[in-house]
Amino acid sequence: MQTETAEQVVIDTSSTTVHTLGPKDARKIRYMQKDGRFPVVFHKASDWSPYLMDIFTTLVEIRWRVMFLVFSLSYILSWIFFGLCYWLIAYVNGDDSNDDDKICIYNVRGFTGAFLFSMETQATIGYGFRGMSENCMVAIIVVTVQDVLSCLIDTIIIGIVIAKMASARKRAQTVGFSNFVVVSLRDGVLCLSWRLGDFRRNHIVEGVTTAQLIRYVKKPMGYVVISYQNLEIEEREIVLATPALIIHKLQPGSPLYGLGPDDLLEENFELVVSFTYTGDSTGMLHQTRTSYTPSDIRWGQRFQNMLKVGKRHYKVDYALFNETIWVPVPLMSAEEYDRRRRPVEPNTPSLQPDKRSRHTCAVTPDSTEEVMHQTCL
After folding, report:
1. Exposed, middle or buried by CB within 10 Å (0-12, 13-18, 19+), for 229?
2. What is the arithmetic mean of pLDDT over 50-65?
3. Residue 344 per-residue DSSP state
4. What pTM was estimated for this model as a whole?
5. In principle, which of 110, 169, 269, 332 could form an S-S bond with 336, CB 3.0–4.6 Å?
6. Could you give the angle at which helices 111-122 and 137-165 cross, rounded to 10 degrees?
């Protein structure tokens, strides 16, 4: 059964939203792009504490060029900081004028030498020219702290790089939806359907698909009201070994039940579909999503068959993934189609005697189920 969420999201353009929608732009700006991204820009977000508290996720989500900048600065700044510490230790101890048996750091005569010693220590290069003596306990403690900190920096940087390379968005690019949605007859019922496929060889074992109808209206005060309606899908759990067809029946309760092909030209909504699954190679949770507008709905078409049975394999031709063909479909809404198929029911049920029980029974014909329901009085 079609359900509608009780909450409505109000987006205020004066504080936290997106784009200012003009009278004509309200139909042009999509709620979600075809590649699954949301065209949302936040303004006046001056509180950065939530991002700093979850610094790992923040670094994973930043762009690669910013990540390389953070990667370089984390090492360079640590080398400079500990190089300054070593230079101060050598300067206070007077290593440039003391004998070899009284100095703290060998061959460190200025900040350049201290910086090189810091880099060689943290990178474990060990040229053998500069080294630490046992005469200065403070220098030994600083070297220990630098070694521990270098291990921590290496762990964080490597973890972030691996997380970005194994991002769910990358896997989602190899699982895709069709470019169009088609409306055709299936078992005498008008159905809205779209295609889902996995383009990699290591197929997904199981996943769950969802669909929502998004409507947004611009209010006079400058904010947008967004409503969400869940669409009932015939089979939500999918084994995606071969391309699957996602079907939504246009039945009573569906928000598209009363819309015909001509009505779609005047409608302003988006059909947001998603597929959530676990990758069998990494065990990570992924999600592929896209959206369709009324212009993406092809009435009276169906997808071409792309699955064939060979001698030893099932053959899938992904060149036909987005190909459709015309089929005979009534050019009317599902509501009008069902109304014309059903005969006009009488206002009052006919009364017929039941000779077996000697009671009067009300007999109501139902042409859809082709059965007779009797209620004995």
Report:
1. middle
2. 79
3. P
4. 0.63
5. 332
6. 50
Angle at CA 210, nearest 5°, toward 200 and 324? 60
C-alpha separations of 198 from 26, 133, 178, 275 in Å: 34, 61, 11, 11
- What average pLDDT does range 62-85 have in this prediction? 91
Residue 178 confidence (pLDDT): 92
pLDDT at 193 over 90: yes
User: Rounded to 5 degrees, what are φ and ψ at 291?
Assistant: -140, 155
**Structural tokens at position 35:** 């590649």
Q: CA 291, CA 297: separation in Å to the nearest integer?
A: 11
**77/74 Cα distance (integer angstroms):** 6
Tokens of 83: 């190089």
pLDDT tens-digit map of 227-238? 889 999 988 888
Helical segments of 166-257, H only: 168-172
Q: Summarize pLDDT for 236-249 with one digit per residue, the tens.
A: 888 888 888 999 99
Q: How many CB atoms lie within 10 A of CB 335?
A: 18
What 3-state class would DSSP assign to 314?
A: strand
In whole angstroms, what is the distance from residue 251 CA to residue 260 CA?
13
For residue 35, give the DSSP letter.
T
DSSP labels, 253-299: T-TTTT--TTGGGT---EEEEEEEEE-TTT--EEEEEEEE-GGGEEE
CA distance 82 to 122: 9
* CA–CA separation, 86 and 104 (whole Å): 9
Longest CA–CA separation in the chain, Å: 126
Q: Rounded to the nearest 5 degrees, what angle is found at the Cα of 30, between the Cα atoms of 25 and 34?
A: 145
The DSSP bridge partners found for residue 237 are 208
Residue 194: name the closest of 328, 278, 298, 264 by CA: 298
Taking a C-beta distance cutoff of 8 angstroms, is the pair 308, 317 a contact? yes
Nearest of 21, 24, 40 to residue 32 by alpha carbon: 40
Closest to 142 (Cα-Cα) out of 112, 170, 122: 122
